[in-house]
Amino acid sequence: MRVEEAIGRQIARLRAERRLSLTELGEALGRYLDRPWSRQSVHQAERGQRLFTAAELTALALALDTSVPVLFRAEDDRIELPRRVVSQEEYRGILLNRERDMPLDGVEELIIALHDIGEVLSRPGLARLARIARVAGTDHP
User: In CATH, what number is assigned to the domain containing residue 73?
Assistant: First the structure.
């Protein structure tokens, strides 16, 4: 998978989770960039058919209420760069602080894991199940 495709999949996933249309995300990006993105531009980005500037990645993170590293997450085993394919482990490593003498070494992994847990727990279906469980628990002591 190309890195642009990985970013595109994250944009699509986050947009769907936030229940934004292509047009709504494009308009939200316009609050941070020179102009909004068209529906087609958002669609191209989600399909991995767009190269991103640093400003666009920042605007996407802000509009989708996430972080830039989350936009780079990939589920594939390999990430294709123009001259080399890198492993999932190597790719994930660049998203985290790699300096060995940093006192917070490993905290980034924890933050990513907590973010993932938060995303799962915020899903509407899971919230409904929790409400059902609470109601069922109060009816039966």
Answer: 1.10.260.40
